[in-house]
Design a protein that fits this description.
Layout lengths: L10 H8 L3 H8 L9 H13 L6 H6 L6 E6 L8 H16 L3 E6 L4 H13 L4 E5 L5 H10 L3 E5 L6 E4 L1 H14 L4 E6 L8 H9 L5 H8 E4 L9 H19 L5 E4 L2 H13 L9 E3 L5 H4 L7 E3 L2 H12 L6 E4 L2 E3 L5
Parallel strand pairs: 1-2, 1-3, 3-4, 4-5, 5-11, 6-7, 6-8, 8-9
Antiparallel strand pairs: 10-12
Helix pairs in contact: 1-2, 1-3, 5-14, 6-7, 8-9, 11-12
Length: 343
């Protein structure tokens, strides 16, 4: 039996296929500023390179002191991979960077500051030039400093990093809570006990809405604590949904006069809604239900579940733009609120 070894694709192969000079193809694939080809030509060359299986030799570029045109997209916590809006965000970021001629790494941070710093150092050693953080990893201050000291750029979709794009989640939550108040509802924020802290955006929304109350009074009067969620669960969405189910079953027994529930996430709201429907409640009438992230399970639920979603198109555009530079940036993007009622 004979074995055929596939020949690696070269710049010359791409140039022949595209009908362009070798120099032009090289300039396009290396994002050279001296190239003046049209955007249509650039996209055509990149598509040909992708279809022919062209692979950039990052090792050679590093040895020659050349730019690698690589970006690392990093999740602050591994379980975020199961979040619908995060999956969409990562895919759109990778597609956008690919269109611009950048290669991307995708990694998740750990629950150790030392391990996280080592991950970033390893990526820098591979030639990664730009970093996009989704969330705040443990030890992010030291990581920021390491990236800056190495001459790389970093932008985060977060609330804390120096160069950041954030979604005004507090404004979205406040819109839902005002809706509950305008409807004259007795509501509670259902949230794991370990998340009922001062920097939780849901709690911040309550504090802004009810400035006359202390933090302790807000927690006592307007929240309901559930058990902590296992972040390492094999099926994280199911674990969160189960948490919403059990939290709802408890609040119905302990606080029967409550008639509006705001869940920390849509997965919790989905579990809570399933409990309510299964026990004869009419969502939208007997009980108002709301969550956060506007996942498909909530959008398509047969009963109205109110939710908030991040404006991903705007966020992706800003993250890509700011990832490739080092100038100061701090953008706040308005969320999209979906108030759903029986009518």
């Amino acid at each position: 039996m004979s074995i055929v070894k596939n020949k690696s694709c070269t710049l010359r192969d791409i140039a022949a296929k595209a009908g362009l000079s070798l120099a032009t193809v090289s300039e396009i694939l290396n994002n050279k500023p001296c190239n003046y080809s049209s955007e249509e030509t650039r996209q055509r060359v990149r598509l040909i390179a992708k279809n022919l299986g062209y692979r950039t030799n990052f090792g050679y570029r590093l040895m020659q002191g050349q730019k690698t045109h690589t970006v690392a997209i990093m999740l602050s916590e591994a379980h975020l991979e199961s979040e619908d809006h995060i999956s969409k965000l990562v895919i759109r970021l990778m597609n956008k960077f690919d269109q611009l001629g950048y290669s991307t790494y995708f990694r998740s941070f750990a629950y150790s500051a030392e391990e996280n710093l080592e991950k970033v150092r390893e990526l820098i050693s591979r030639g990664v030039e730009h970093f996009v953080f989704l969330g705040n990893p443990i030890g992010y201050l030291e990581i920021e400093q390491e990236i800056e000291n190495s001459g790389r750029s970093l932008v985060g979709f977060s609330e804390k990093q120096r160069r950041r794009i954030s979604s005004d989640s507090v404004a979205g939550v406040m819109a839902i809570l005002r809706f509950f108040l305008n409807e004259g509802r007795n509501f509670r924020l259902i949230c794991p006990a370990d998340k009922l802290i001062t920097d939780n955006t849901r709690v911040i929304a309550l504090q802004r809405l009810l400035p006359e109350l202390t933090f302790e009074q807000i927690i006592e009067r307007y929240t309901f604590a559930t058990d902590a969620i296992d972040l390492d669960s094999a099926d994280f969405p199911a674990a969160v949904s189960s948490n919403g189910w059990t939290g709802t079953s408890r609040i119905i027994k302990e606080l029967p006069k409550v008639n509006a529930l705001y869940f920390m996430t849509d997965y919790m709201a989905f579990g809570g809604a399933n409990f309510l429907v299964g026990h004869g409640f009419e969502i939208g009438k007997d009980m108002l239900v709301a969550g956060f992230n506007n996942i498909p399970a909530v959008r398509l639920y047969p009963a109205p579940i109110t939710s908030v979603e991040h404006d991903l198109d705007r966020i992706v555009s800003l993250l890509v733009e700011e990832a490739l530079v080092t100038t100061p940036c701090r953008h706040i993007v308005e969320p999209i609120v979906h108030i759903r009622t029986k009518e």
